[in-house]
From TrEMBL:
Protein name stated in the entry: carbonic anhydrase
Catalytic class of the enzyme: lyase
Stated family: Belongs to the beta-class carbonic anhydrase family.
Catalytic activity: hydrogencarbonate + H(+) = CO2 + H2O
Amino acid sequence: MSLVSELMEHNRKFVEQREYESYLTDKYPDKKIAILTCMDTRLVELLPKALNLRNGDAKIIKNAGAILTQPFGSAMRSILVAIYEMGAREVLVIGHYGCGMTKLDAGAMVAKFRDHGISDQVLSTLEHSGIRMERFLRGFESPEEGVLHSVKIIRNHPLMPAAIPVHGFLMHPDTGGLEIIVEDYRESAAL
C-alpha cells in the first residue's frame, strides 16, 4: 500500500468514527498567541505539550529554522494575519538546539539540487533573476542568532503594531525545556 493510500484509509476511518470531535474549535487562538517555530519533526508534538497548548490555543507558523528570510514573505504575512484578523496579542519565536539550519551550507544544497537533476541553466536563470542562493538558503551560526534575527524583523516590521510583544525562545528538542532569549515586556539590548 502506498503512503497516500495509507493516509486516505486512516482519514476515512478517522472521519467515520468521528474522532475529529475532540479537536473541534474555531479559527481564533484562545491564548491569543502566534508562534513562529521550526518545522523540525521533534517539535511536532513536543512543543505544544511543553507549552500546555491544546488545539485552538495558538496560531503556529512553521518553516525551516523559524527564520524570516524576508520581511514580506509568507511567514510574516501569516503573523500579521494572526494579529489583525485572528486576535493574536503576542508573538513567540521558538527556535531549538540542534537545528538543521545551523551553519547550513548553501553551496552543498546547490550541489544536491544538481544531483537531483536541476540544471545549471535553471540555477543560472534564478541567479540572473535576483534569486541569490546564499541568501535564499541562509542559515545561521547559532540557534540564538536565528531567533534574534526573526524577532528583530518582526519587531521592526512597518506593519507590526508597536503594542504587540515579540518574545524569543530556544527549546531543547529532547526535553522540551524552554529558555528565554528575548522577553519583550522589557527592552532588550541584544536587538
